[in-house]
Structures are given as structure tokens and as C-alpha cells.
# Entry
Amino acid sequence: MRRRLALAAIRVLEEGPPGEMFSAPRQERTRRFLRRVLH
# Structure
């Protein structure tokens, strides 16, 4: 079955080198996301 998605409210939360984003994210939302995904 083919599917299509429509996305809304996409925002850039952080920008920077990957190592910096993973070791010291600036935004709480990014920290929560990384905790869920990496642990």
C-alpha cells in the first residue's frame, strides 16, 4: 500500500555540529528527544 504524509509545524530546534548537539544540546526539547532515542 502506498502512503503519503503531510507534515506541519516543522521547526529547526537546534543547529550546530553533530558532536555538540549530542553532547551538549541547548534546548530542553532536544535533550528529551535524545534521552528517549539514545537510552
